[in-house]
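Internal tracking record. Fields below are filled automatically when a chain is submitted to the structure queue. Please do not edit lines marked as system-generated. If the sequence contains nonstandard residues, flag them in the REMARKS field before resubmitting.
Queue: standard
Priority: normal
Entity type: single polypeptide chain
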Amino acid sequence: MRHFRPALVLGAALAASLFTACGSTNTNTVAANCTPADGISTSSLNLVLPGKLTDATDATYPPQEFVDPTNHSYTGMEVDLANEFAKRLCLVPNVQNVQFSTIISGLTSSAKPGSQYYDMSLSAFTITKARKAQVDMIPYFTAGESLLVAQGNPKNIKSKNDLCGLPVAVETGTVEEAEIKNVPGTTSGVALNDGVCKSNPVKLQSFGTQDQVIQALNNGSVDATYQDSPVSGYYNNLNGNKFTEITTISPNPEGIVVRNDNSAFESAIKQVLTDMENDGTYDKILSKWGLTNGACKVNSSCYQQGLNPSA
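SYSTEM-GENERATED OUTPUT FOLLOWS
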């Protein structure tokens, strides 16, 4: 839900430098005599790198994607999903840790499918009309938003309407940042778009990573942080439940981001996702990360909402 991206234009040199500076993780192997699921021909998918499935993600958003502190590899629910897609397509998973403000532009950086920087992105992208004007988005998960405040909630914050005049931290470029700034067309249920804080604006502090957002609350420089509810729960648990979580809005669908002119690739991802749902793998991955309440399956109301977002 975090990402809200207007159309971005990057110079080729800048985009290339961002791409090559990213880390990556892959197994470098594919099972012997592997046959892609559902008879899919990987030669028709217009892959960025032959034999690899290149997934862009901003690995600072646990439990969906983050860097494992024990072995420094990329992990999380969405990394597991990306790896499973690769496995079923007989491809090597190639997860790229990318600054999320460059992800959509990296996917649309070339007019020719396969010449862009990434094949797809699993990175907690809320599905919005603005995004769907640039890329296609395959619904697969749903998440709400919530606030974290100091334990005991000393400022008596009950909703976003109570943030007027207070210092609040968000991650740069997120839906949450856009909502506080009253950017139209973000998500439904925006509480500040009625000008409630017009005479006493929120003292917004935007940071490049979610770790920095939480650190601002830890050191007392802000009174609240605003992010996806699974992320709030993860960081609260990580910090010994020293914060109080305040749920603010109901969940919205998130989507796998793919190009809108590579139908063979998009169809393959949709088919494999359906297979994972049907054989229980999808549920197992969500259960592993305690995110089963965010399930968004094909033909569900959540999935239909993702196909036709209201904002």
